[in-house]
Write a structure and sequence with these properties.
The complex is a heterodimer of chains A (405) and B (252).
Chain A (H helix, E strand, L loop, with lengths): L1 H31 L1 H4 L10 H13 L2 H11 L9 H22 L8 H4 L6 H27 L3 H31 L17 H28 L5 H28 L11 H20 L3 H4 L2 H31 L7 H24 L18 H11 L2 H10 L1
Helix pairs in contact in A: 1-14, 3-5, 3-13, 3-14, 4-5, 4-8, 4-9, 5-7, 5-14, 7-8, 8-9, 8-15, 9-10, 9-13, 10-11, 11-13
Chain B lengths: L4 E6 L8 H9 L17 E5 L2 E5 L8 H5 L5 E3 L5 E3 L9 H5 L6 E2 L8 E2 L5 H4 L6 H5 L5 E5 H14 L19 E4 L19 H8 L2 H38 L1
Parallel strand pairs in B: 1-9
Antiparallel strand pairs in B: 1-8, 2-3, 4-5, 6-7
The chains are: A mainly alpha (405), B alpha+beta (252).
Amino acid sequence: MKRIISLMTFWKIIGVCILLAGAVATTIRFTKGLGASTNLSDEFPWGIWIGFDILCGVGLAAGGFTLVAIVHIFNIKRFEPILRPTILTAFLGYLLVIVALMFDLGRPLQIWHAIIMWNPHSVMFEVAWCVMLYTTVLALEFSPVLLEKFGMPRLLKAIRHISPVLIIVGVILSTLHQSSLGSLYLIVPEKLYALWYSPYLPVFFYLSAISVGCAMIIFESILSARVFHKGLELPLLVDIVRFGMVILAVLLTAKISDLASRNALHLLFLPRPETYFYWLEIGIGILLPLIILGFPKVRTSRGGLFTGSILVILGFIFNRLNISITGMEAWAGISYFPSWMEIMVTLAIVTAGFFIFSAAAKHLPLFSHEELPHSAGKKIDLNEDLRQVSQLTTLETGYAALTRE
Amino acid sequence: MSHSKALLIDTTLCIGCNACQDACKQQNQLAEGEEKKLSASAYTALEEHDGIYVRRMCQHCVDPTCASVCPVHAFTKTPEGPVIYDESKCIGCRYCIQACPFQVPRYEWGSTYPKVQKCIFCYSRVSKGLQTACAEACPTGATKFGDRDELLKEAYTRIGAEPGKYVNKVYGVQEVGGTSILYLSSVPFEQLGFKTQLESTALPMLTWNALSKVPSVVSVGGVLLYGIWWITNRRMEIQRLERRQQSQQTGE
């Protein structure tokens, strides 16, 4: 026990150091500009703030919409116990993505321009709108936790009334912008190396977001169980990993057949840095997890699940960084490596996310509903409300007929 | 696009005097001093390839990639030909720099309130019927201003008149859907650093193919998700009703 506490303190001290260094980097960024704080240039205008903070950040938050769809649309209620922490992670993820964007944009205070100055031909415009709307949806999806905590039953009821709409809108918005982050690169057919450039980039981005969403659900559940001493729903995670593996297998098949259809299979064996990075991405993120999780013994063990999910997450990060950095370097003719300030800002944002999540886990009813005083005796069941709504509307007549029989 | 303006740059006539850059810097109030590469203070620059000078500048695409990718519509292709930039709209995402197939837009990296810098085809002059500052300054006629259609005709006439002097190609006719800057050369264009691999379709079509599917994702996805939700919930509801009826019957 004592060892665990000291370990936690150790990580906290590291975290505070990172935040301090991040504060220094932030000051330089906003007083001296992008040139002084980053290694970006006209040849390489997008670095890790886009490649990691945005592309990976949004992808890693995909657990939110995946699980919401599983629980509320496909109605697989067993997963409800892990829904709230997953929604919170997604919500925090999107807020932090917006924070990172404020660092990366040259004129961050004009970020709101996208609201009134439209260009429907721009993928970036679509992403901007989807992220704005989906962050709002996530805030509303998460709001019941706060409304319960602070005892606001009327608002809670209102939110539950609109929740079916929220859920469907949320899944559609996620589908759109997860894939659109891939569409961003459709415009650079000459610049992005042929192992990655494909007309199916949006499809690959979507599939990989779902698979990494599953991995994140598993990773977070196991980590939360360890850190916050919450019960672990291992059988649930095993089901999630099965679903994730199917998606990974589909993704792998799609990627190979895409390479084949573009006559690019030979690129897999060219002795170039891109080749090695591609194999790292596929090996760590798809092949290895599919192999090790293929063994039922590994798949059903906590350690196996944890390792598998970390591999998928790492492979995903590799993929996004490969597309945004490795794959763009050859054409740009320069090699890019982030400055310490770019790295520290990124680490500080991730650290802030961890701190906020653990504070929320401590103080908000995230993991189990029974701990709540206001809901004593009455379990919060979102689905119950969905049913009531549906009864009021379309189903009423059907049920009336059924019961008469 | 018939009265769309263009520049015909004949690299065989260029003597590398740099008058175009000087005039450009004066016209656009950019920091003085000769520059060999495009920069935030040089909208045009002369490159030398084995004694042949090539003017680099924004190509003013017929269907510009920068205008298509900009989320806030800071770039506009004007009917007169110039692709202009509205600094007041720009949020600084730099997607234009990332996406431009000719690697033209430059950023003011040193500024805390940076803007994108690129040739704007002297829009204020062209819209008044004047020619660009660079064309006016060019002492040899290497840069010639005019209607795109007529300049194209002239380019082919020059090639036809001296087929031994020119390679049989006008760069800019069809690259990424065509550009308003046309080039003539005596050596294959790739030797002068031109990107000759570019497709003849405009790049914005690539993203539009994906973007145009958004309405169907929304409508089909919405109906599908609502349908699945409706069915799964109905099934649970029926199960519940059946259970209730059963318990009522056994109760009786």
